[in-house]
Amino acid sequence: MIRVIIPHHLRTLAKTGAEVTVEVNGPATQRALLDALEARYPMLRGTIRDYATGQRRAFLRFFVGVEDLSLESPDAPLPEAVAAGKEPFRIIGAIAGG
Question: Which class does domain 2-93 fall in?
Answer without folding.
Answer: alpha beta
